[in-house]
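Objective 1.3, modelling of assemblies. Example input:
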Amino acid sequence: GQNIDQPTEMTATEGAIVQINCTYQTSGFNGLFWYQQHAGEAPTFLSYNVLDGLEEKGRFSSFLSRSKGYSYLLLKELQMKDSASYLCAVRDSNYQLIWGAGTKLIIKP
Amino acid sequence: IAGITQAPTSQILAAGRRMTLRCTQDMRHNAMYWYRQDLGLGLRLIHYSNTAGTTGKGEVPDGYSVSRANTDDFPLTLASAVPSQTSVYFCASSISGGASDTQYFGPGTRLTVL
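Predicted structure (tokens):
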């Protein structure tokens, strides 16, 4: 079966750095996405990785290792508004997105 | 309209009733999707459409039907609602459904079936 694993919840301090991990086992791989979802709102796109390595976009970076079936989202200089759930999704061989359950990130002052 | 809209925002429905969730996008995206999101689970694909006039089944299609008469609209119908269909429903769209395609989500419909 297809599986995406993420930690259920993480806590970090305002101004710090946090790394949210995602491991996957899917039938085929056509890219990995990270989305942010604030409580009661729709998911919004953060990043896309299809090749191994690090993609940096402002305070957010995303890393991919296809051989290890592993990705992480790195958030720097955390702000209170970063409190949200972060969803990892993999596009499989049928070009459908398989979603993890999400990691709820709690930022404390 | 800018982006994707969904209606209604929320609904309480008696079991056995028929319900249509509406989704409209104005981005001229070819591909559209319906997901349900339940606590502790990832988003699960119900149905999708890669282009107007075509639809396909996702991971959890039973009890749901869709149609895609034009590019903009993609309604989801529950023919006879059951309590297990209580969920938050998100409609999404993307340019073409290709590998690097980003999906854009509507605000969601919170449905409760009693």
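The two ends of chain A are 40 Å apart (CA to CA).
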